[in-house]
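Supplementary Text 2. Reproducibility record for the structural model of the 447-residue chain.

All settings were left at their defaults, and a single model was retained for analysis rather than an ensemble. We include the record here because the model underlies the residue-level annotations in Supplementary Table 4.
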Amino acid sequence: FSSSRFEGFIEIAHPTDEYSPLLLQVKNLKEDLQKETISVDQTVAQAFKLRAYQDVIVNIINPKDVTLDLVELTFKDQYIGRGDMWRLKKCLVSTCAYVTQKVEFAGIRAQTSELWLKGEKVTCGYISEDTRVVFRSTSAMVYIFIQMSSEMWDFDIYGDLHFEKAVNGFLSDLFAKWKEKNCSHEVTVVLFSRTFYNAKTIDEFPELLRGSIRQNQEGRFFEDFYRVVAQNERRDEWTSLLVTIKKLFVKYPLLVRLEETDAVPIGYNSTAAQGNYLEAINLSFNVFDKHYINRNFDRTGQMSVVITPGVGVFEVDRQLMILTKQRMIDNGIGVDLVCMGEQPLHSVPLFKLHNRTTGVDCHVGDDYHLPHWINHSFYTSKSQNSCSSFTPRITVAGNQGARILVHFTTHPALCSPKDTESSLPIQVDYDAHDAQVFRLPGPSRFQ
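Retained model, structure tokens:
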């Protein structure tokens, strides 16, 4: 570096450290620069653990070798449109970035949170035209829907009540994550469910309730309920909200007319599959559609989170599904579906569409749909992590299951799986087994 005209990219690191080296873009060198001395900003030096008055290794780097695949920027308490995001991305091209770097452009303030290169997280890199820039807002409008179907009062195979798994587990972890990331989302929490009534005609209902009673494709009368727990709230501590949700859980059967009364027919809580899932998320779309009216300039982003005790299978109306998909894609709204149930052995989320054609030419494949536009995940509680990783997925019927159970409990090699983890699997002659099972019966002695 004896020439002051050097321009390019260099990396700096201590020779004995295994920490990621610092990548710098050199545009020009000062004439009065001291010999064999490098000056780096103090905040940058602390981020990369560079110590003063210590030897470092300096290498010239080809920018193609350190070009980032993805850059994630986070921002808070400001509104950034798509045009501003595009301009900010163009401003970052042909520059170096590092984690926790502060970025400012045209009044926009953001911070680099994650950098990805060849499928791995890195601490610094080069941003090119091909680098994808992702913007994440920590002050968005979030709608949280909790489906209070009949499975909420059931226990899973680990002994956890689905409601406790949703509130004490997922919501508690979510709010703790928000506090860790210093988020200030504007949150609305809604409990929703569907109640089926044991009625044959609409005349069995009081006149004041007939306007909210609907009839499905099977002729069953039902009513949808939505209970707003919190609306457009920002809190530093969300523990009090969890207490409010638990209190509503106790009296929820009374709120949705599951208790027997003289004026209203007997009501039954629906399962998660028969619930009003699409109807609930369309309620949030009614608000998101008008996001440009009376715009709030201290938040960016809108999303819906649905917590269900089911496994991601829903019986929905075909036309409503098409409308929901169109509204979601047109407005760029994200929807997350979080399931408390056990993951099934088939693809989910799965929509079972109402079959409106009863003719012979009805195609079974047209009655099901896999919505790719829904982000789907299963929540794993802490008790699941502490239990055994083996989960039975097939139930053996009859006396055969008892014989297998006796074999498993009496076989000494199967009673201590930890001792045989490193051993090879037992070799089974499957051809001989099939020949034994499917062999033809021999001649009877009574013939």
